[in-house]
């Protein structure tokens, strides 16, 4: 019977491309297995890096008790490694890694299906696999999960040739934790890790499969090697030549769980501190800005003569202006004035001139011999203080709020995974393990206390983040109020400028009216003389000698008739042209009014 099961496994391994439909113990309907296989094939281009694949094996044989690291880079080498004509190692770790958290896995589809077929990995573990691979944005954001599928007490699929009893506990989980990314704008990235465990409760053989976007967890596991190495066989008469103390193997399994769970907890403290610092940079500026009150100023220094950077009112009554762009290390670049952001383009030039007047330094009133330290700087105007606030600050607060909400959800789900793991081991009867010098309760009791500490630590970080989220909401409300107040101040500036323009226009109109009055008076004074000179110069009246006005003169009727014939028709023509233009303008106005009335009546129901 056992040889038959081994032959079945060998046949399934030859049909590796059918995984997961080729697993021997099928606990899922056939349609579900086909769906897993189809999705795995459809997303293989995103999930796997077919060129230069690599699987990292970290194995320990109980006869030796030492772990050995081996990288396998070809399917043929994988086949030879999995079938060495001997039993499985006492503990086997397989690491599937990638260049980064959003890059394809450094593994080919063929190697993954071959490995999962030989180890008979549960198909449900593929759900976690799909959270990896090439992706622009995180897939299944904040997803964390725990699941188990045991075959305790069953020996139907026992393969003594490989040292497998067929009775094993199998579980898997997906965890997420923050990792420091120095080169990014936001220094923290929440990354996932998928873990699969198969523990043979009769032989103590352990299989771990870890999928991670880097080699961080592999380094953590290797650092714990002295605590995880299986003990050599204690019984020379054992039917398993690589057998050892099962309870020690079980304890090493619990310690390995703690390595993964500690990875979930270790960086949250530092993320919380960075978030708190980012919130403080913006909220403190909003809370301490000298809006509506006269601030205190340090004595004027010569090097501050042309400076326009005004500091904030600190607790020491000094101005220290925190950097606006330090919250997420964002550089806004060359941007228009902050007050101009709220104005239409055609008014920005006007706003620039207004702000330049507001920010202009007053001329020095001190004498040249006065010492510099006696001079006082002019306090910044209200608009200059308000100009330190802009929409980018509000956007940063929104980004921080999204990060905090994501972190809170991730912590909650991680806590759920840890608690599910504790419940799983707590419900396991100790009779499933071989008797040993230490009781099952003692081994699991230490493990449970460690889990409780991790859960308490994560809940503390969650409470801190929830408090920061409330502070963020208050900061956003305060910043929105300041921005609205700044809009009112900008509107007031334009209203005052419009009033000044109206007064200037009125003054100009008055000056122009006075000028027209002067022109009218001058015209009236000189108009009779102009008419007389024009009439006498037209040749209607003619003196006989042409020299003296005392000489006899005569009226020339023919010349006067010619004068009338030219002037009168010209005046009448100009008057008719003006009347025609005026009538045409009024006609167009009437037509437009009638059309508007008609359109309005047509829309009335």
From TrEMBL:
The keyword DNA damage does not apply. Residues 226-245, 328-347, 353-377 are annotated as: Disordered. InterPro entries: CorA-like_dom (IPR058257). Residues 328-338 have a biased composition (Polar residues). It comes from the Eukaryota. Residues 363-373 have a biased composition (Low complexity). Keywords: Membrane, Transmembrane, Transmembrane helix. The keyword NADP does not apply. Residues 12-286 form the CorA-like transporter domain. The chain crosses the membrane at residues 518-540, 560-581. This is CorA-like transporter domain-containing protein.
């Amino acid at each position: 019977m056992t040889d038959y099961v081994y032959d079945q496994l060998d046949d399934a391994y030859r049909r590796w491309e059918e995984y997961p439909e080729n697993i021997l113990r099928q606990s899922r309907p056939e349609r579900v297995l086909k769906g897993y296989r189809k999705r795995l094939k459809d997303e293989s281009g995103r999930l796997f890096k077919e060129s230069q694949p690599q699987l990292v094996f970290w194995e320990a044989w109980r006869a030796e008790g030492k772990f050995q690291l081996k990288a396998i880079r070809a399917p043929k080498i994988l086949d030879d490694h999995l079938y060495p004509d001997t039993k499985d190692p006492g503990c086997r770790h397989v690491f599937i890694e990638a260049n980064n958290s959003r890059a394809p896995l450094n593994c080919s589809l063929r190697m993954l299906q071959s490995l999962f077929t030989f180890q008979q990995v549960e198909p449900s573990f593929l759900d976690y696999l799909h959270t990896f691979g090439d992706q622009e944005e995180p897939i299944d954001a904040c997803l964390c999960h725990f699941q188990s599928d045991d075959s305790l007490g069953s020996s139907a699929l026992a393969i003594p040739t490989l040292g497998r009893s067929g009775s094993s506990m199998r579980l898997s989980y997906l965890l997420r934790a923050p990792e420091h990314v120095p080169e990014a704008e936001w220094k923290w990235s929440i990354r996932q890790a998928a873990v699969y465990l198969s523990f043979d409760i009769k032989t103590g053989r352990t299989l771990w499969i870890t999928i991670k976007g880097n080699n961080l967890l592999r380094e953590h596991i290797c650092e714990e090697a002295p605590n995880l190495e299986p003990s050599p066989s204690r019984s020379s008469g054992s039917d398993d030549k690589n057998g050892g103390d099962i309870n020690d193997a079980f304890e090493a399994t619990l310690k390995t769980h703690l390595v993964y769970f500690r990875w979930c907890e270790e960086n949250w403290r530092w993320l919380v501190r960075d978030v708190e610092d980012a919130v403080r940079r913006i909220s403190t500026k909003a809370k301490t800005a000298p809006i509506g009150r006269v601030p205190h100023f340090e004595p004027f220094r010569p090097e501050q003569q042309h400076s326009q950077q005004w500091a904030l009112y600190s607790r020491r009554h000094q101005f220290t202006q925190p950097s606006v762009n330090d919250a997420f290390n964002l550089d806004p670049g060359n941007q228009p004035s902050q007050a101009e952001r709220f104005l239409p383009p055609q008014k920005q030039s006007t706003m620039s001139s207004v702000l330049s007047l507001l920010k202009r330094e007053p001329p020095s009133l001190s004498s040249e011999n006065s010492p510099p330290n006696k001079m006082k700087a002019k306090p910044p105007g209200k608009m200059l203080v308000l100009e330190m606030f802009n929409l980018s600050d509000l956007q940063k607060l929104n980004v921080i709020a999204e990060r905090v909400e994501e972190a809170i959800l991730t912590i909650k789900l991680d806590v759920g995974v840890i608690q599910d793991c504790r419940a799983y081991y707590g419900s396991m009867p100790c009779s499933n393990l071989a008797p040993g010098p230490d009781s099952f309760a003692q081994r699991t009791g230490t493990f449970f206390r460690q889990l409780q500490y991790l859960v308490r630590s994560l809940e503390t970080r969650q409470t801190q983040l929830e408090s920061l989220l409330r502070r963020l909401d208050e900061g956003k409300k305060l910043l929105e109020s300041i921005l609205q107040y700044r809009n009112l101040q900008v509107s007031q500036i334009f209203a005052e400028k419009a009033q000044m323009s109206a007064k200037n226009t009125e003054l100009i109109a008055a000056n122009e009216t006075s000028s027209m009055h002067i022109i009218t008076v001058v015209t009236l004074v000189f108009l009779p003389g102009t008419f007389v000179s024009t009439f006498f110069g037209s040749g209607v009246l003619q003196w006989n000698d042409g020299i003296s006005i005392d000489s006899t003169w005569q009226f020339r009727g023919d010349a006067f008739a010619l004068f009338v014939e030219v002037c009168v028709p010209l005046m009448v023509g100009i008057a008719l042209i003006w009347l025609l233009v005026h009538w045409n303008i009024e006609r167009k106005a009437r037509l437009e009014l009638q059309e508007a009335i008609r359109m309005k009546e047509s829309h009335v129901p």
